[in-house]
Every structure is written in C-alpha cells, then in structure tokens.
C-alpha cells in the first residue's frame, strides 16, 4: 500500500501550544504507511468573498498542500466552547470558492486538547459540523477529547505519558483504516 499523506491543521498559534505538542507526538507515533505533516495556518489573512477568486499566494500555497494530501487531521483547542477563529478561517479558505473546495471528498479526523477536564468536546463537535459541510468524511470513532493535558505530559513538557501515547497510537491505527476505505 502507498504511504498516505495526512495534512495536520493545528488550531492554535501559541508558541507553547499543547495542541501542537500533541500533533508532533502524533507525527512521531504514526504507524507505517501514514505520513503526517503540519500545514501552517499562521500566515493566512482573514477570509473574504471579495478576494476568493483572486486569492493571495499564501491561500493558494495552503490550498495546494491540502489538495496534495490524502487526508486531513485537525488538532485543536476549544475557545468559548467552539472552534478557534484561526482554525475556522483556515477551514473557510480551504473550502472556497465552492468549485475549488480543497477538502472535498477527503477522509478526516479530529483531536481536541485542553488543560480543562472535558478535553474541548464542544470544539470537537463543532469542527465536525463545519467539516460535514465542507464535504470532509470524518471518522466517527474513536473520539479524542484529551483533557487535563498538563498532567499527561512527561517531565520534558513535550512528550505525552505512556497511556496517552497508547491511545494516540490506537487512534492513528483507526484513522489509517478509515483512510484506506477511500
Ligand atoms: C479565548 C479563549 C477561550 C477559551 N475557551 C476555552 C473553552 O471553552 N474550553 C476549554 O477547555 N478551554 C478554553 N480555553 C483555554 C484553552 O484550552 C487553553 O488556553 C489551551 O492551552 C489552548 O490550547 P493551546 O495550548 O494549544 O494553545 C480558552 C482560552 C482562550 C484564550
């Protein structure tokens, strides 16, 4: 089987982002046959329909990276029980104009990470709502709400503990099987 390329979109621009740390751990833990790569969203300007037909180069480059991937993985915090604005903006840009929807038909998955107890469940659910409209086929199970993340990082502050790593491997194996269905 060919290696499947997964575009990883991190919904936080924070330097010490827990979500970015978990995304990097997922890159490290990815099973053979799955290649995860972060697609950066920090340079995307705000979406406007006025410029969607003559987009800036940053939008085009970003869309090409999505387009050239076999699947997409969102790793995101929850802001006010919903999607962080920067991630929503990146979802919008990827999906417009409708005839050039870069997400269309791709298999997807979502992981939400929070220092809070419920692991960004509200964000996880609302990312799924937007993804459905963008024609991304999201994996339904297992769900990944990673709460109390500060307690799940090892002393180095970078790597996750054994139990969390095991869960991420299970999640990635399931995602690989999901991608193979497409
Ligand atoms: C504007 C804002 C809203 C937030 N709302 C929530 C929330 O609804 N639920 C939650 O679990 N954490 C919330 N938080 C806390 C974030 O989970 C926390 O800042 C987290 O570290 C952000 O993810 P990151 O580390 O990847 O940047 C919020 C933080 C900010 C800045």
Automatic annotation (TrEMBL):
Q: One matching Pfam family, short form?
A: FMN_red
Q: What is this protein called?
A: NADPH-dependent FMN reductase-like domain-containing protein
Q: Describe the location of the NADPH-dependent FMN reductase-like domain by residue ranges.
A: 5-147
| Superkingdom | Bacteria
């Amino acid at each position: 089987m060919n290696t499947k390329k997964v575009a990883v979109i991190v919904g936080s621009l924070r330097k010490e982002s827990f979500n970015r740390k978990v995304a990097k751990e997922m890159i490290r833990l990815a099973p053979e046959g799955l290649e995860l790569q972060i697609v950066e969203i920090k340079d995307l300007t705000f979406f406007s329909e006025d410029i969607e037909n003559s987009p800036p180069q940053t939008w085009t480059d970003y869309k090409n990276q999505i387009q050239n991937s076999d699947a997409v993985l969102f790793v995101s915090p929850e802001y006010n029980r919903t999607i962080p604005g920067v991630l929503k903006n990146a979802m919008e840009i990827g999906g417009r104009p409708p005839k050039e929807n870069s997400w269309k038909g791709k298999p997807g998955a979502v992981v939400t990470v929070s220092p809070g107890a419920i692991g960004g469940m509200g964000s996880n659910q609302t990312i799924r709502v937007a993804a459905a409209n963008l024609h991304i086929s999201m994996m339904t199970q297992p769900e990944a709400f990673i709460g109390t993340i500060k307690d799940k990082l090892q002393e180095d502050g970078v790597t996750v503990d054994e139990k969390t790593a095991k869960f991420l491997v299970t999640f990635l194996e399931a995602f690989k099987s999901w991608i193979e269905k497409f």
